[in-house]
Amino acid sequence: MDKIEEKIARMLMEHSLELEIRNAGVFRYLKSYRFERHNHRETEIVYIKAGHCIMGAGEEFVPLKERDCIILYKGVPHWFLVDREEGCQIAQLEFYVNVPEELKESLAVFRPARYHKLPDSDGIKDVIEGIGRLYRSAGNGELQSVAMTMLFLLLFLELSMRIEKNGKRQSGKMAKVLSYINENYEYDIGMEELAEKFGVSSRYIRKCFKEETGISCSQYIASLRIEKAKEMLWSGSETVTEIAARTGFNSSQYFCRVFQQYTGMTPLEYRNMWKGTRAEERCTIIEEEEEEN
Questions:
Q1: pLDDT tens column, 58-108
Q2: pTM of the shown model
Q3: Contact (CB, 8 A) for 112 and 74
Q4: What distance in Å separates the CA atoms of residue 159 and residue 108, rounded to the nearest whole number?
Q5: N or C: which end of the chain has fewer CB within 10 A?
Q6: In whole angstroms, what is the distance from residue 140 CA to residue 172 CA?
Q7: Element (H, E) at 80
Q8: How far apart, in whole angstroms, are the C-alpha atoms of residue 87 and residue 31?
């Protein structure tokens, strides 16, 4: 089999890389920002520069903190929410790419997946920001195209190496705790119960959960419950009382109070706002940051 560098060289010579950029840059989102569920034909890469957030990918919840990166593949329904106590700054890239089949076979980033979460991804951030600067610049068309292609190839190589490395890491206790919460957030979940179930102290869970996700365990559970409630309000016909019970709240009054704290509106106001709409992309960028030279 040809070496990867020979495949890349052949692709460059034959101009066989199809690339379209939809969005590229660094963006800041205020606390409590919500980007509703949507999907698109482009692959999306998000690197967390500051703060933390939760990304929904399909039916999974993925907590992201500073220096984490996530790749969301085309067609995967996803949503984005920022914690209500702290804003979030991200480097983001949305693009459509078509590469030769022989290159797809060699790079992990092109293998079938819904998403990849990659921790400690400083190198990826630098390439995304470089693409963003080039995307917004007005230079020589041909030279700019070649430079953009080279940057994307560097990105694909960096991502593939990190995906391979990340796939060899063993899932620790906190990964199992997160998975358990994601699957059982509609039930009552206490720190002592988690500690007993996973054979650690509640203090250990509190400490490690904060380090892993950037927020407390209780904040994380509340965020998941509210997001599920929003989905049910949007697309279902259950009453507020029924939704409260199905999302782990012990009373509709408490549910309404927490819902308003997280969204700034009552459950019924939220339902009426989205009534009759479709799950399309609704996003207003709050502020775009120009990277320092």
A1: 878 888 999 999 999 999 999 888 877 788 999 999 999 988 887 788 889
A2: 0.77
A3: no
A4: 8
A5: C
A6: 49
A7: strand 78-82
A8: 4
